Structure to design on (179 residues):
């Protein structure tokens, strides 16, 4: 039970940091030391790993689904969680795509734990092995497929017209088809 809470807390913390845009920056200036070269190589490896999440959706697809232009996707590797953040240019929304590769059993258990804790989860069909959406306190679609546990979180969607949850679910279908 404590392990499950730790996993949930870790996932929540990782998603919060990603949504806040927190990350490290290499502020070494013009010091071309071997250490900064190693740090750069490690950063490049993290960026390459995080590209996996950004390879699952394009900015054009997010723009079409949400009806607003978005900035370039921002990949981030948070250890076992790879994310890709899309921010609206005019509106104040952010779409965060998070993907975690786990064992099939862990992916299902993680999904089920989140579904039980979600406020008014709505079961979705046609997305992964199982999927649900929730709109409180933010619009979120979560699904799992094989070893992959995927979450799409939309915040700041107050200015978007229509049904943001249906739009995010459509994006989730595209992601699931590419896994």
């Amino acid at each position: 039970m404590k392990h499950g809470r730790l996993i949930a807390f870790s996932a929540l913390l990782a998603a919060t940091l990603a949504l806040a845009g927190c990350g490290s920056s290499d502020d070494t200036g013009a010091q071309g030391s071997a250490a900064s070269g190693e740090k750069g190589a490690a950063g490049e490896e993290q960026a390459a790993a995080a590209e996996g999440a950004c390879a699952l959706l394009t900015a054009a697809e997010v723009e079409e689904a949400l009806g607003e232009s978005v900035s370039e996707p921002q990949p981030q590797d948070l250890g076992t969680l790879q994310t890709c953040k899309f921010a609206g240019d005019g509106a104040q929304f952010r779409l965060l795509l998070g993907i975690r590769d786990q064992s099939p059993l862990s992916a299902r258990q993680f999904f089920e734990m989140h579904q039980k804790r979600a406020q008014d989860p709505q079961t979705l069909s046609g997305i992964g092995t199982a999927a649900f959406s929730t709109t409180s306190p933010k619009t979120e679609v979560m699904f799992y497929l094989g070893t992959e546990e995927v979450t799409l979180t939309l915040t700041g969607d107050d200015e978007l017209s229509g049904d943001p949850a249906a739009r995010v679910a459509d994006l989730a279908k595209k992601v699931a088809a590419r896994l």
In short: DSSP finds five helices and seven strands in the chain. The longest strand covers residues 94-101. The radius of gyration is 17 Å. The longest helix spans residues 34-54.
